[in-house]
Design a protein that fits this description.
homotetramer; about 400 residues; alpha+beta; Butyryl-Coa Dehydrogenase, subunit A, domain 1; Butyryl-CoA Dehydrogenase, subunit A, domain 2; Butyryl-CoA Dehydrogenase, subunit A, domain 3; 3 domains; four-stranded mixed β-sheet; four-stranded antiparallel β-sheet; 10 strands; flavin adenine dinucleotide binding (chains A, B, C, D); Acyl-CoA dehydrogenase (chains A, B, C, D); AcylCoA_DH/oxidase_NM_dom_sf (chains A, B, C, D)
Chain lengths: ~400, ~400, ~400, ~400
């Protein structure tokens, strides 16, 4: 057992940290200004392109993509354990840093699927432009009206019609899909409702401009439309016709494909959430040193010290659990690491939400406003407790496993 | 000791409940549509005027205004204890119901101040149109850069220049002030920085259109601009000149005037927060009966039952504490009820925030979106933990009192 | 609605408070010394008798017994609402005060049953000596090996044999039964396992010295044997034969009789638990004023103030819920007050446990020892979360009721 | 970074686990019987000697003692990281397993001090018999009446009188000291009250039978006298005279010596506490599978699954933090690991207390009794939140460090 990072991780961590400090954090007010200047636009703002160019120059690009598999040469070739501290650092500026390194959800998950399950043609058509950040993408799984954690409830139908697949259904919470540049929609639907529970679903690649695709409306999270990363769309699919070659994986593989995506997706969420907590604690420390009430700096007040100490302990313990989970994914595989993935998915967002709540309290009303990144991070952490299955599904599954003889 | 409401309370409660159910709740989607139709407008929407007209016809108007004092005949003449359940009912639809009955903050507090401290001319010029809902108002106390819970830190200066008062400073979180119809700004500033700590401040009535008043920008709370009730403004006062007759109360009375406003303001916040919790629990019950996961309705799942039961117990206990506080304010006065006012100010928003968090979890991502009122209520409850002093100031004060020999 | 106690309550509260302060609290070290002097004895100690004599002289006797019913003239004739603050005061010294006023569980519940369901002969033989504190009693419901909250699982059998009832089974957690002076055992068993679920059980009066009754062993709660009030016994009933006239209520009434006992029993537990919290807060205040760490009295430390303030708010809110529950029991009856009884049963012990935990922390290791009453109170509060059904049964039932359309 | 244990750790872990399962757990009822048979005896029971003999035969002896230093050859020569999982396993049976391997507090800490600071004569006289378990020892630091976390408050005086040291003062919570076989008392007192704050104290070795030493009384923790490991004593030192050669370390080194002891002591506490949590979770799983209420096994009830899952996640995260702390102690030293030591000291006992509370609830009243080890473990975990400084001292110190610029 050894808790020291390897040399490559240490080097990349220093490099990414410097990039975030020197390029990304100063770009935050620029993003705000660009968003305010064109309030109706759902496209990425120019500052994102500039950061991407700078990151790419430094070789900080597609860090998330494992080095194995057909597209391995395009990624940084890092293990999950090596990528973890880098992903955490991107969480310090969640609106800009993940995109700057082309490591933003949902594109990362979609790129992993294409790298793993895609045909050469699919990789050429979609993976290459995604790896170049020429296009963005969305993942269309969640549906209004059903509990998405229960895959058997999916209502979208995909039926074969000769060489075509015809998709009918309604999706929502398709993150990124308000962005007109999100050229690819990865859609999950049922090809065979009579098959066994986990063989009913298939995954299909749908170009955004296919007839029958209608982006109905944007959804908000608390009051945020998350316009900077393409928002969250409700999308109608009315007899949307794509070639059968657009199937990602085989027919009936949809559930397995989705599962393959969720493991890394969940751990990335957790890593970034820890980065949000670290950013918040930095802000808290600054605030506590500068602000006084009733004649004493906040930093000398016992309650503030307890908040900060408690938060620090939670972050340290949970980071180790995330790292161990990454190590398990690397050494025994995602499936064998399922219980640990569930554990961090439950514990990290919950803890980070509580930490952000404390730090907002320290900032007073400013902490709830757009003057600090805290409330928007809070909304993101809160949403993570529901994304990819609500906590309760994971708690129940984990508890069941624990109680098995 | 008797826990039954008196006859007038019972009757008004039934009437207000019916009005909210029949008029206000159905108006919520209308408000959404009107807000979406004119996204840049900060004025109240037509649906508010219609609800006000209907409520006034039924005599459900200015329910908050105590029957005593010079303007008593204009209010409903209710005690705090009688008003409590009515205020709670308005919390079930916080964007519309308080305004419908002309019982919305910050106007209620401003009207109380004018009724209590205003000269006949001040009452004629400002209280009468407020009681008629012809104008709205804002309260300008909080300042950027200082801890507002510590009145000695206020930076805004009010200096006398002959028969005029000249105000210079900067305020923010002036709720309602983005609304161009908020004709009156009640501004707290320092008239004498050398006076004893609580005699340095004065309160002055500033017409919104006075030269030197600049509404700088709107602030957001968790992404919400709260446009429906006039938002939250940052306002600059640059050599703003008003007649000395605009002083509300005497010179040096500012702190006392502000305190007079805070007691009722805090209990009203708590009452409405309980109404939000009740609305959330109603929504939760509906959701839990209708939605199933893994083959069982949520209503039959133990964890959901615990959430609902725990929430119910918290609401019942805290409502009684709010009612007792109202009774104390009525019987021994606001000052003698200070510890109870602090107690509910601490406990109620915190509990309601937790309840809303649970109910959002029950609704999945929809619970965080604009499709349900939960996230916006959450933001409101969260803000209440900072408004009128953060929890920690009240906890410290209450703890200090408790530990006194 | 009126939160002021009536005149009789105010008077009795003052009288009981004075008695506890002047007689009971000073007797606590006497009890400790008497317990240490005869460590193997399970009988009440002399100091209890002395306190009983003093209380009886002052007319503070059988305060718990409602004034209605056949034995009403023997009790103080108080409503639940009137008794509540008195019961709370006895919680300040839980080992001595309830017994001093002949208001100690389980005798109170047994006396209520005898008063309500007993025949004149049963009342003469058992109720009269209990009301005089000449004997004590135990209630034998809980059984090892089954979930006692589920009455259908009861394993003790009562079969008729001519004019006799023959009881076979095993009970535990029979509080008070280690005391050789506990002359009466009230035993619940099944007379007809084939009857409908809640008609299978009957309740029978068993003199302690009946052949076949074996007190197997004492149980401990944490490390306490609760010797001062007769401990908690495991009891074997082997073909125990009593006259059929010893049936309390009719055959098959056992469940209903038990339920009748539980409502008042639960509220009394909650009242006393609040008294424990008040005692703890008094001790906390003294400690915080006297003890300094790192140069500052604990009373000036923010964290300590928050603990005390939070505890105070919880106590105030929950006391009101207990009082309202008492009022409902008085006005609409125990059955109609079932949800409120469940609510306090859930919320009060849990809050009091948390308060005691905080106060123990304030006292350091002394707080866990026999030098302070805190740890023993903690054990009692913790046990209350299981007595008469674990919290989870009540939460589930309350949640189910709340989610009903 | 690597989360796999090294080969020696893996091997020893398997060996210790097997020993605990095969020898120690079956010995628990034997211990109970031996304690019941001689209730007034404070000596270790025969079963402890037997387990020690068996463990020693297997080479599982003095596992805690680092391999470096003058007495290194007597210990197992493990790093903190290697010892951690072994210490955890001993926590599964805290009354027997630590003693079985001669790894029980406070002897471990005392042996480390003797190994590190002792003269050859001191090591021969005291360390050798301790390493052989021929004697036991106590550590006398805490005093009644002062906050022990503040070393400057220590009241015990040690004055030089020629070649002798004369000790006067009163100690309590001297764990193990009721055992007549605890031949050595390690006593901290002030040699120079005028020296700088952390140079006032010295540590001295006092044979138990020295005239002037009076064991005043045993203290209890939640009713437990902890007789099995020598209880907790209050001890009076009245002009106790020992040779000056009994000074452990130099004059004025007392604070530094105590600190040297506390780091390992704290981490050992945390390791064992995690073992208690694991034992509790095993018991919980068994109970949940076997017990049904209202027709369903507890293991299928959502609330129970959440308890178990939440507990599992806490244990996994905190174990990693403990292991990382051990690794830091091994690699950068105890002083550099101070913040991590504080972090686990705060977080682990608190979490384990909560876990034990949940499992007790699952067991019903049996969980609070002596029939299960849960309540006694709860008392131990609760006490750990105060031992070696209350949580609040560590939280404040950690928060202060975190807020430093």
């Amino acid at each position: 057992m050894d808790f020291a990072p390897d040399a490559r991780t240490a080097e990349l961590t220093a490099q990414v940290r410097a990039f975030v400090d020197e390029h990304v954090l100063p770009a935050e007010p620029v993003l705000d200004a660009q968003l305010a200047a064109t309030p109706d636009d759902w496209s990425p703002r120019p500052v994102v392109r500039e950061l991407q160019a700078a990151a790419r120059t430094q070789g900080l690009w597609n860090l998330f993509l494992p080095g194995t598999g057909p597209a391995g040469e395009r990624g940084a070739g890092l293990t999950n354990l090596q990528y973890a501290p880098l992903a955490e650092l991107t969480g310090r500026s969640p609106r800009l840093a993940p995109a700057a390194f082309n490591c933003a959800a949902p594109d990362t998950g979609n790129m992993e699927l294409l790298a793993h399950f895609g045909t050469p043609a699919q990789r050429r058509d979609w993976l290459d432009p995604l790896l170049d950040a020429r296009i963005r993408s969305a993942f269309c799984m969640t549906e209004p009206g059903v509990a998405s954690s229960d895959a058997s409830q999916i209502g979208t139908r995909i039926r074969r019609d000769g060489d075509a697949l015809v998709i009918t259904g309604r999706k929502w919470w398709s993150t990124g899909a308000m962005n007109p540049g999100a050229a690819l929609l990865v859609v999950m639907g049922k090809t065979d409702p009579d098959a066994p529970r986990h063989r009913q679903q298939s995954m299909v690649l749908v170009p955004r401009d296919t007839p029958g695709v209608t982006v109905v409306r944007p959804l908000t999270v608390f009051g945020y439309d998350d316009r900077d990363h393409g928002g969250h769309a409700e999308i109608a699919f009315d007899d949307v016709r794509v070639p059968a070659a657009n199937l990602l994986g085989g027919e009936g593989d949809g559930f397995a494909v989705a599962q393959a995506r969720l493991g890394p997706g969940r751990i990335h969420h957790c890593m970034r959430a820890l980065g949000m907590a670290e950013r918040a604690l930095e802000l808290a420390a600054g605030r506590a040193r500068e602000r006084s009430t009733f004649g004493r700096p906040l930093a000398e007040q016992g309650v503030v010290r307890e908040w900060v100490a408690t938060s620090r302990v939670e972050v340290e313990a949970l980071r180790l659990l995330v790292l161990k989970t990454a190590w398990l994914m690397d050494t025994v595989g995602n499936r064998q690491a399922m219980r640990e993935i569930q554990a961090i998915k439950i514990a990290v967002p919950r803890a980070v939400q509580a930490i952000l709540d404390r730090v907002m309290q320290l900032f007073g009303a400013a902490g709830l406003s757009g003057d600090q990144p805290l409330a928007e991070m809070f909304a993101a952490a809160r949403a993570t407790r529901l994304a990819d299955g609500p906590d309760e599904v994971h708690l129940s599954s984990l508890g069941k496993a624990e109680l098995r003889p």
